[in-house]
From TrEMBL:
Entry keywords, A to Z: Acyltransferase, Amino-acid biosynthesis, Cytoplasm, Methionine biosynthesis, Transferase
Protein name from the UniProt record: Homoserine O-acetyltransferase
Presence of keyword Magnesium: no
GO CC aspect terms: cytoplasm
Encoding gene, per UniProt annotation: metAA
Originating species: Mesobacillus foraminis
Pathways involved: Amino-acid biosynthesis; L-methionine biosynthesis via de novo pathway; O-acetyl-L-homoserine from L-homoserine: step 1/1
Known role: Transfers an acetyl group from acetyl-CoA to L-homoserine, forming acetyl-L-homoserine.
Active site: C142, H235, E237
UniProt-annotated site: Important for acyl-CoA specificity, residues: E111
Amino acid sequence: MPIKIPKLLPAREILEEENIFIMDEDRANTQDIRPLNILILNLMPEKEKAEAQFLRLLGNTPLQVNITFLKTATYESKNTSRLHLEQFYTTFEEIRHKKFDGMIITGAPVELIPFDQVDYWGELVKIFEWTKTNVTSTLHICWGAQAALYYHYGVGKYELPQKCSGVYSHRIFDDKEKLLHGFDDVFYAPHSRHTDVSEEAIINSPDLKLLSSSEEAGPFIIHSADRKHIMVTGHLEYETATLAQEYSRDISRGLDVPVPQHYFPDDNPDRKPVNRWRSHANLFFSNWLNYYVYQETPYEWK
């Protein structure tokens, strides 16, 4: 089954060209199906790119999925037009009375700022608390994962000597874990961040379970003991060229950043990168929607 998105959302054209099964509200309303309602708090600066990345993965499932995009009310994006945000996004106050089967909280380019000094931290704390009762499963990405680990479980972050950027190999620790069904023993995933969290702190926490890690990039997939919260420190949703675009952007700004590791052939930025994570990205999101959302959410929220 498809994802349901607004007719005029720019990502729609991209997904249609890729033959991703989508439908608009008119067609979806004619189907007598209980769809999954997924909320996406999009904290990424280039919101339209992030929309396409997540919708592409959420559309690769036999389940019908309704998508609602959430923006912060306490901080206005400088990289996305106000018209786009007004047309396709809502605020927390407008949806706080609702229940959602799943939620995604994206990364954000604020990892070098202390959590409580981020402009929208107070608003995010309210959302974190609300997810405990109003969302079946919440998936936190990159900075969103670090923020969730800090707020819910007291696991802090620390600054890295240089930016962690590249495509790294990861191992899994429990091949019986439903979230990892079908995963290879070793798989690849992109990372792009300036901070990290302690693997030891995660392992020693009775409330957390480390599912996957990388020798070079550190802890990767973590879930809470009750499986309501999933933290992913990297970016399985990234497109093939995303790291190259970030690297080019940083260099153009005069930043001293390393060439993304294990990404460009022969580590040569002039060569076209090869995607080695797409299949596991699709598998991860399908597993999450099936085992952590669809199989756990009530048919009717009360």
